[in-house]
Design goal:
Elements: H1 2-11, E1 19-25, H2 26-29, E2 44-53, E3 66-69, H3 74-81, E4 85-87, H4 103-112, E5 116-124, E6 127-136, H5 145-182, E7 193-200, E8 209-215, E9 219-226, H6 232-249, H7 256-276, E10 287-294, E11 299-305, E12 311-313, E13 319-321, E14 339-343, E15 349-353, H8 365-378, H9 383-394, E16 403-410, E17 418-423, H10 428-443, H11 450-467, E18 472-479, E19 481-488, H12 508-515, E20 518-523, E21 528-535
Antiparallel strand pairs: 1-2, 1-6, 2-3, 4-5, 5-6, 7-16, 8-9, 9-10, 10-11, 11-14, 12-13, 12-15, 15-16, 17-18, 18-19, 19-21, 20-21
């Protein structure tokens, strides 16, 4: 809006007026949806946004000054009537001097040689945006009716531009606020990876996003997505998809390929609703990369929906772009998504990014990927240092697209942090595993968790022995939290219920839910895993 006011002031000097001043309503500058801003006495409040003239020493208010107009002033009359007002000879009028209740300034204006004034309101769509004032000093002839018509035309055209700028500024501000609200404000605490991130919005707010989602069993999900388009629609859609990814990740804990399939169906439904409502803006074409890293096994499973593949920096500095099945973007449908598994050495860096980093009008994507590879090969091994090096090398001067970057350095749990047992299909095995779990907790100095963990162990293993199929395994993981898992080859999951007073069973999972911080089920290729997580002493 200020830039438009400056252009209006400059275009009229010196061909039409010797001095031009543009004031914008304070309510407009505050981006409030108001009309005329004033007090109960009718005094209008403005702020000077631009001044232009043939000399710099004119005794006019400066940019940034706040002004008030009394009800009898020509400026107030222009506001009330909505039309430009002409004061051909300032010496013969006194009302215009009541601006800002400063008659002395009016005298200085007359003494300076300014002799004629046209003041016109800037209004559009029923909203007062400001005022424009045209002054003459060097030109001896005063403004006349033809000049008044031209000034009114200038004000009308400028009002449309100021209003467009106001509406754009307001929409852009809302989009930025919405985007910042929907993006992660901080990375969550987890021990599977050491992570750093960067997000750089473009001038036009886009829909790029990233996420780090802790998963049970010392695992973590790394997400990178890119929504088609810019503005409020892209930011709102990003929020929808990010929320959906969280819901599919926890508590459902879906594998990457299944998660993208559900996300693809969601995008299709969103587009169908938009088409039904007559909205031509669709989500089809959005991309997403979803990776799950397991710090116990050191494996990473990745699936992509049309997103650029991540880069992997090995501990020795060697860089490769992982051969992830690209598949189609979200909302197109047709082909299933594929997940690929890699074994990552401890200290490897997984680098996820959006295409704004490596592709733009002046940079071909192949050149961008080559620059990224070269930068990663010599970057500092820490995630923060890697982010800084990448942005220093590839960040453009002006961004037409958002840039999101996520660097995760892997950790692997040592054998002293994990204990596993094979469980026989015999009720007596419950006692043996429970005793082994208690002994391991004593070794880890977690005596306070022995009783609840024994109860959780007894319930989960008893359920597996009674109802599961195939081999049964139990695992205890200490990684910030304490997690007890029981896996089998059955796809049937137990569910929590309230047992009646006459029931002989059905209270085990209720007790598990009471003692565990959280619990749930995740499905694997072989069957399922029932897990229960407890907070260890000293852990938030």
């Amino acid at each position: 809006m200020t830039r438009t006011a400056e252009e209006l002031a400059q275009v009229a000097v010196p061909r039409f007026a010797d001095y031009v001043a543009v004031d914008l309503a304070e309510s407009v500058l505050r981006e409030e949806e108001l009309g005329v801003d004033g007090t109960s006495t009718g005094i209008r409040r403005m702020q000077r946004a631009a001044v232009s003239g043939i000399r710099d020493d004119a005794p006019l208010f400066a940019v940034g000054d706040r002004l008030t107009f009394s009800p009898s002033s020509p400026q107030a009359r222009a506001v009330e009537s909505g039309v430009a007002v002409l004061v051909p000879r300032l010496r013969e009028s006194t009302q215009w001097r009541e601006v800002d209740l400063d008659p002395a300034r009016g005298s200085r204006v007359i003494d300076f040689g300014i002799h004629s004034l046209i003041t016109a309101p800037l209004s559009a769509r029923g909203v007062l945006l400001g005022m424009v004032h045209f002054w003459r000093s060097e030109k001896p002839e005063p403004f006349d009716q033809d000049d008044l018509s031209l000034a009114a035309e200038l004000a009308t055209r400028a009002s449309v531009s100021v209003d467009n700028a106001r509406r754009y500024t307001r929409e852009h501000g809302l989009a930025v606020a919405l985007q910042r609200r929907l993006l992660p404000r901080g990375l969550p605490e987890q021990n599977a990876v050491e992570v750093a991130s960067r997000y750089l919005p473009a001038q036009a707010v886009g829909g790029d996003w990233f996420d780090v989602i802790p998963l049970p069993g010392a695992r973590v999900a790394l997400v990178m997505g890119d929504i088609v388009g810019h503005g409020l629609h892209a930011a709102a859609t990003m929020g929808q998809l990010r929320t959906a990814v969280h819901n599919f990740s926890t508590p459902l804990d879906l594998p990457p390929d299944e998660l993208l399939s559900h996300l693809d169906e969601l995008v299709t439904l969103i587009d169908q609703d938009a088409i039904t409502a007559g909205d031509e803006t669709t989500v089809t074409g959005a991309t997403c990369l979803y990776a799950v890293y397991d710090s116990v096994s050191g494996t990473c499973v990745i699936a992509s929906a049309g997103h650029p593949p991540p880069a992997l920096v090995h501990p020795d500095g060697r860089v490769e772009f992982l051969d992830v099945a690209p598949c189609l973007p979200l909302g197109i449908g047709g082909l299933p998504f594929e997940a690929t598994e890699w074994s990552l050495a401890e200290g490897s860096r997984l680098v996820l990014f959006t295409d704004g980093l490596v592709e733009r009008r002046a940079l071909d994507i192949d050149v961008g990927l080559r620059l990224l590879r070269e930068t990663l090969a010599r970057a500092d091994p820490s995630p923060e240092g890697t982010c800084d090096a990448v942005l220093d090398a590839l960040l453009p001067e002006s961004r037409s697209d958002d840039i999101a970057l996520l660097v995760a350095r892997t950790r692997v749990l040592g054998p002293e942090q994990v204990a596993e047992w094979d469980v026989e299909r015999d009720p007596a095995a419950v006692h043996r595993v429970r005793a082994a779990v208690s002994a391991r907790l004593m070794e880890w100095d977690l005596e306070d968790l022995v009783f609840p963990t024994e109860l959780i162990c007894s319930e989960l293993i008893t359920n597996a022995v009674r109802h599961a199929t195939g081999p049964i395994k139990a695992r205890l993981i200490r990684d910030g939290a304490l997690t007890f898992e029981v896996s089998d080859h059955s796809s049937t999951s137990p569910h929590l219920r309230y047992a009646a007073s006459t029931d002989e069973g059905g209270r085990g999972l209720f007790l598990v839910a009471q003692f565990a911080e959280r619990w749930g089920t995740r499905y694997t290729k072989e069957g399922k895993v029932i897990w229960a997580e407890q907070t260890t002493p000293g852990t938030a």
